[in-house]
Specification:
Blueprint: H1 4-8, H2 10-23, H3 30-35, H4 44-58, H5 63-74, H6 84-98, H7 101-114, H8 124-130, H9 132-142, H10 148-156, H11 169-173, H12 179-185, H13 191-204, H14 209-221, H15 227-234, H16 236-241, H17 244-249, E1 257-264, E2 268-269, E3 274-283, E4 289-300, E5 306-318, E6 323-331, E7 343-351, E8 354-363
Parallel strand pairs: 2-8
Antiparallel strand pairs: 1-3, 3-6, 4-5, 4-7, 7-8
Helix pairs in contact: 2-5, 4-6, 5-6, 5-7, 6-7, 6-8, 8-9, 9-10, 10-13, 13-15, 14-15
């Protein structure tokens, strides 16, 4: 991903200030101009927050007047990209601070006008926290918009675990609140929108498996040519967990197989090396077996316990008596998303959600930083 300076640096912030000053009939935005020079040591989200606060300080007016200035600025097509993020954050903050229903509703409307320039998925989160029912009612209306960006905002903005987004307790506590939005969008003509629906449903799988399977089953029964792909993407976390109901829904039901392994090419390793994992899977049944084959690495935690991570091997179909041989190299190397700890790790094989074998290896002390 580009650096914050490339997305929302001084040049973008200065351009935003210029556009707003023109829209505000020449009113000088001194706080925002000052903030645009104070971004260097800030991450992207913090830059957006600082600029949003400065905009609100420069334009402390009734929301209706504030919204008019934003809409005038939007007439210029150059108001686009990451400079929109602080502006959308300012819109939601101003609408909520006003306290009136008219301001709140117009704030939601203004976010839908801004989102084609840059997604307002983060700016809508405070609106959801402030008035959940009112916001979701509006977002359900967005699901029938002619603009794919607005339709996507309905799904993406209401995701339980939106990346970079603040949590909305009502949604994480009751996932069924957003189900009508997803059901309205799962057959959307836009891949952009459908992918958001799949990611949203996958989010829900973290705390409501029953609802995920209920919706996925209903969609498959009344879907279009794109629905199987959407459902596969929606169920990816459940598949990695080995959820047999999710696997069966995708056609990977119980299978009669004989598994030999996994076997490792060494019993100890240092950070930076790789393991060779070998195994074989044979269909011992009388019918063809459609299989999802994964492997699970049990990593040692700082407290000596273990945490699991599932990795894909393949999806395949084995005819009766047919076998597949697995040779998979797995690198134990430093990555930003995982901290390794010395101790006895392990590898398991997982076939259609059923685990087989348990091969251990020692990650040696002194090689881990």
């Amino acid at each position: 991903m580009p650096f914050a300076d490339e997305l929302l640096g001084r040049s973008q912030a200065t351009e935003l200030v210029n556009l707003l000053e023109v829209a505000a009939d020449g009113r000088r935005l001194t706080e925002t101009r000052s903030a645009s020079t104070q971004l260097d040591d800030l991450a992207l989200g913090a830059r957006s927050s600082r600029l949003a606060a400065a905009i609100l300080a420069d334009l402390p007016m009734p929301f209706a007047d504030f919204a008019t200035i934003v809409r005038l600025a939007l007439r210029d097509e150059s108001l686009s990209g990451w400079m929109v993020w602080p502006l959308s954050n300012a819109v939601s903050a101003a609408a909520i601070a006003d306290g009136g229903e008219a301001a709140f509703d117009d704030g939601m409307q203004l976010l839908s006008e801004l989102t084609p320039r840059l997604t307002c998925e983060w700016a809508v989160r405070p609106m959801l926290r402030a008035r959940l029912d009112r916001s979701l009612e509006t977002m359900l209306d967005w699901a029938s918009s002619d603009d794919e960006h607005v339709r996507r905002l309905a799904s993406e903005g209401s995701r339980p675990y939106l990346p970079w987004g603040t949590r909305v307790a009502g949604i994480t506590e009751n996932a069924r609140l957003t189900a009508p939005i997803l059901t309205a969008l799962y057959r959307d003509e836009s891949e952009y929108v459908r992918r958001s629906v799949a990611n949203h449903l996958n989010d829900i799988s973290r705390h409501d498996t029953e609802l995920v399977l209920e919706l996925a089953s209903a969609w498959l029964a009344d879907g279009d040519e794109h629905t199987p792909k959407l459902v596969r993407h929606s169920l990816r976390t459940l598949v990695k967990r080995g959820d047999t109901d999710a696997l069966a829904l995708l056609g990977y039901g119980a299978a009669e197989v004989a598994v030999d392994g996994p076997t490792l090419d060494r019993s100890s390793i240092v950070l930076g090396d790789e393991l060779l994992i070998t195994a074989s899977v044979r269909n011992t049944g009388d019918e063809a077996a459609k299989l999802v084959v994964d492997y699970i690495v049990h990593h040692v935690k700082a407290d000596g316990g273990r945490t699991q991570k599932t990795f894909k091997i393949s999806t395949t179909t084995l005819e009766p008596g047919e076998s597949m041989t697995i040779r998979k190299r797995h690198a134990i190397k430093p990555i930003t998303t995982r901290r390794y700890h010395p101790g006895v790790h392990a590898v398991e094989l997982q076939v259609n959600g059923v685990r087989h074998g348990f091969a251990e290896f020692d990650l040696l002390p002194g090689s881990v930083c």
